Amino acid sequence: MSKRAAVIGAGFAGLSAACRLAQLGYETHVFEKHSTPGGRCRVFEKEGFTFDMGPSWYWMPEVFEQFFEQYGEKRSDYYSLQRLDPSYRVYFSNKILDIPASAIELGDKLEVIEPGSKENLKKFLAEAKYKYETGMGEFVWKPSLSATEFLDLKLLKAAVRIHLFNSISSHIRKYFKHPEIIQLLEFPVLFLGAKPERTPALYSLMNYADIELGTWYPMKGMGEIPKAMEKVAKKLGVTFHYNNTVTQIESLDGKAKRLITSSGNFEIDAIIAGADYHHVETKMLAPDDRSYSEEYWNARTMSPSSLLFYLGINKRVNNLLHHNLFFDEPFDQHAREIYDNPQWPTQPLFYACVPSITDKTLAPENCENIFLLVPVAPDLTSDESLRDKYLQNMFDRIEKRTGESIRENIVYKRSFAHEEFISEYNSFKGNAYGLANTLKQTAILKPSMRSKKLSNLFYAGQLTVPGPGMPPSIISGQLAAETMNKLLFQS
User: Fold this and answer.
1) How is 300-314 classified by DSSP, letter by letter?
2) Contact predicate 143/149, CB 8 Å
3) What is the DSSP pairing of strand 305-313 with strand 255-261?
4) Beta strands in 314-361 (DSSP E)
5) Which residues neighbour 55 within 8 Å (Cβ) at sequence distance 6 or greater?
6) Which sign does the torsion angle of CA 354, 473, 101, 167 carry?
């Protein structure tokens, strides 16, 4: 008799969990409130423009390759990749730095800024490579249900060598002194949701992913990835229930027994929730079935939210690359206004993405698709006038740094911030990237992958292990499926 498993949410974690469950022999059903897969990586089209709604950086390409290979598939049969070179551009207050796809070339550029940097970059990246291989090969594949998982001599030795208990801020400063180089190397941890001084030095592995493994782009847009994963899932026999919102998980005798959805009731043997962990707990479960109190959740350190703009421009732009970082204002002040004294930032750093430079199919002829992002503190509110103030600030700085005026050429505009993260994704406090990867929220100190109250309810995604981002979410889904299968049906 087949075992029936439900997956809540068709984001990266949910899609990955569904594929692995089907491969393990489960009758697998995915319930998704939206009409398409992808979660935060959905796509929308307006006025001839195709916009990726969320993730725009394709890092750690081997994680995606391994996903397809596990099911006897090839990524290249589903979408094509292009490595970006330069990987991205950084606008500082007094210079522009293009980050080449070659670490050797980057070393040459940093040497001009700070003598000795070329050799120090080699040393820094050698350590980062070890952390990447150890972290991706060992630590991320632990379900972190118990500290005993890490009581292994090899892992204990590795924990010291990967600088788990030092901050990435102090680690970078061992090698470099120039503020622009420091800011460049601290940039990737913005995706992890905490200030560099509170983020373990383990995460210099992100620098290795950035500089050595490269920045890539899936042609036709990031939405091609979840579309491909859905196709693999369907080949494996997974059934998708779109436009179908799960409203309640009913339980009996310490087990989840039934999903109540917008289209009816569904009996199940096990559940993996890839939706927002806090939302599942507080909105779908009865109080006695919840693992964590509201006080627990409010004490968590969340990653930033984002103020996003999707813009259609009726001309081509110059002096911008596919990815552009505007570090032309002080990072410390912006960081304090995200993490220490949460408020709308005074003069924020921001990110500008122009994917139509690489892929002209994303915009009408002689037009441009532009995505702007300001990292902001979670749990804020905004109105259109506030959002427009930040948009005009970004326009001013783009024009100042590049000579490119775009505000008069907008033919389509849409904004997206906390309110939309909550309404679209049930995101806790409107966060954009999940739980911050601080030392106090690492591994067994994250919300548990397994419910403490319902033995057959498991969680995957950015609020549990291993953490936020597309590759970690893919790993999280697979890990949740394998852990559930082992604990429930192989014991």
Assistant:
1) S-BPPEEEEEEEEES
2) yes
3) unpaired
4) 323-327, 350-353
5) 40, 41, 222, 470
6) positive
Which CATH architecture does the domain made up of 104-213 adopt? Orthogonal Bundle (1.10)
Rounded Cα distance, 10 and 32, in Å: 6
For 219, other C-beta atoms within 10 Å of its C-beta total 14
Q: What is the pLDDT of residues 81-102, one digit of tens each?
A: 999 999 999 999 999 999 999 9
The one-character DSSP state at 308 is E
Which tokens is 418 given?
Answer: 């906390």
Cis preceding linkage at 100, omega within 30: no
**For residue 459, what are the β-bridge partners?**
273
* Fold of domain 4-44+220-300+434-489: FAD/NAD(P)-binding domain (3.50.50)
Peptide linkage before 466 cis (omega within 30 of 0):
yes
Closest residue by Cα to residue 435 from 232, 165, 199? 199
Q: In angstroms, rounded to a whole number, what is the distance separating the alpha carbons of residues 208 and 200?
A: 15
Quote the tokens at residue 346: 């005074």
Give the list of residues 6+ apart from residue 299 with CB closer than 8 angstroms, or none: none
- Nearest Cα neighbor of 24 from 219, 321, 237 is 237
Characterize the bridge pairing of strands 43-46 and 27-31.
Answer: unpaired
CA dist 304 and 468 (Å) reads 12
DSSP string, 54-113: S---B--HHHHHHHHHHTT--GGGT--EEE-SS-EEEEESS-EEEE-S-HHHHHHHHHHH
Helix (H, G, I), strand (E, B) or coil at 196: helix
Count of CA atoms in the C-beta half-sphere (13 A) of 35? 2
Residue 156 has pLDDT above 70, yes or no: no
Residue pLDDT, tens place only, 181-226: 999 999 887 767 788 998 889 899 999 999 999 999 999 999 999 9
**Could you give the dihedral angle defined by the CA atoms of residues 334, 336, 341 and 342, in that order, rounded to the nearest 10 degrees?**
40
**Separation in Å, CA 223 to CA 38, 122, 404:** 7, 35, 28
Q: Do 192 and 303 contact (CB within 8 A), yes or no?
A: yes
For residue 119, count other CB atoms closer than 10 A to its CB: 12
The residues spanned by each domain of the chain are: 4-44+220-300+434-489, 104-213
**Crossing angle of the two packed helices 470-489 and 12-23, in degrees rounded to 10:** 40
List beta partners, residue 218.
81
Q: How many CB atoms lie within 10 A of CB 104?
A: 10
Task: Retrieve residue 336's tokens.
Answer: 């304090």
Q: Are 90 and 83 a contacting pair, CB within 8 Å?
A: no
